[in-house]
Design a protein that fits this description.
This protein is an alpha+beta fold. The chain has nine helices and seven strands, in the order αββββααβββαααααα. It has a seven-stranded antiparallel β-sheet with strand order 1-2-3-4-7-6-5. Strand 3 and strand 4 form a beta hairpin.
């Protein structure tokens, strides 16, 4: 099975969800949450300890009734509100946290359709394997990838310097003096970064700004590729792989499983099978177009096209070079 085909069928899990920063009572935390139409998985950390909670089905409905007896809403609508309170809190949303032995409780006070809405996340300490799979290993992979990209950028800059030097040797000059740049020196650049004020500020923050939007996308891409590389390969997949690679993707292949939950409602093609299950990200309150979502969608479309081109080139027969007689 090609990676393009696998991405269409794969359903992301908690490991593929990027970490997001959140502030509760002036303290910085990181969290990640995976939603379905009737459940959520939440992982929280203060960079020292990790807490986890999974709530689904009847347990979700029981807690909703217990905390909000006057609220009548579907589980999907409740999960939409929970997601908004964590990821896009309004001015009317108040968050507080408390620790009781090995438990971490997050209290949410907000409003749902003009009525008071209360929620409690009751997390317990996460085990070491979950911490490794969701935090340690992905962060090491991100550092390695950013290091690789940094080296590639240095090569590009050095090549550009050689090109500019060649132009100057032929008498070319810049039209304006202030846009002229000095020759790039790697050691000098690294020393300037260490001595800069921004470096000191980043050290003070101790990585709290490490999960910007760009790094969240990098995290998602790394974990998606990791899931593909470590996927269980069935016997049928190995025998039918050559046949599957020749199939042309359908026009209707842009389906919900291809997109993350935050972009499922932005899909330009409607699903063929009208499944009643809906992601909580398809909230009526989030129908307005978002530049972030649109840019992420464009990046993913470009990635899909690139993967399809690579698969097509692999399957094209190699042309024999013509021999020229002298």
């Amino acid at each position: 099975m090609s990676e393009v085909e696998w991405r269409r069928k794969w359903k992301p899990d908690l490991k593929a969800c990027p970490w997001q920063p959140i502030t509760i009572a002036s303290q910085q935390y990181l969290f990640k949450c995976m939603y379905t139409h009737s459940s959520y998985e939440l992982l929280f950390t203060d960079n020292v300890k990790f807490w986890f909670e999974q709530l689904e089905g009847d347990d979700l409905e029981e807690r909703t009734v217990a905390l909000n007896p006057s609220v009548k809403a579907t589980p999907t609508r409740i999960l939409d509100e929970i997601q908004n309170c964590l990821e896009k809190p309004s001015k009317k949303t108040n968050l507080s946290a408390s620790r009781k032995k090995n438990k971490f409780v997050i209290n949410v006070d907000s409003q749902l359709a003009g009525m008071a809405f209360v929620w409690q996340f009751r997390c317990e300490e996460a085990d070491s394997s979950m911490i490794s799979e969701n935090f340690n290993v992905p962060l090491l992979a991100m550092v390695a990838e950013l290091t690789r990209r940094n080296k590639e950028l240095i090569k590009i800059i050095e090549a550009k310097d050689k090109e500019i030097d060649d132009y100057k040797s032929q008498g070319a000059k810049t039209s304006r003096k202030h846009i002229e740049t000095a020759m790039f020196v790697t050691t000098a650049f690294e020393n300037d970064m260490i001595m800069s004020r921004d470096f000191e500020e980043e050290v003070k923050r101790l990585g709290s700004s490490g999960f910007s939007e760009d790094n969240q996308d990098l995290y998602r891409q790394i974990m998606t590729r990791y899931a593909y590389l470590t996927r269980p390969v069935a016997a049928e997949e190995t025998t039918d792989e050559s046949v599957d690679d020749k199939k042309t993707p359908s026009v209707n292949s842009w389906e919900i499983n291809r997109l993350p939950a935050s972009l499922a409602d932005r899909s330009p093609v409607k699903s063929v099978n009208n499944s009643p299950q809906k992601s909580p990200a398809k909230s009526s309150s989030s129908e307005e177009p978002s530049p972030v979502k649109d840019s992420e969608l464009l990046r993913r479309q470009a990635l899909e096209r690139k993967l399809e081109d690579e698969e097509r080139k692999k399957n094209e027969p190699k042309k024999k070079k013509k021999k020229i007689a002298f």
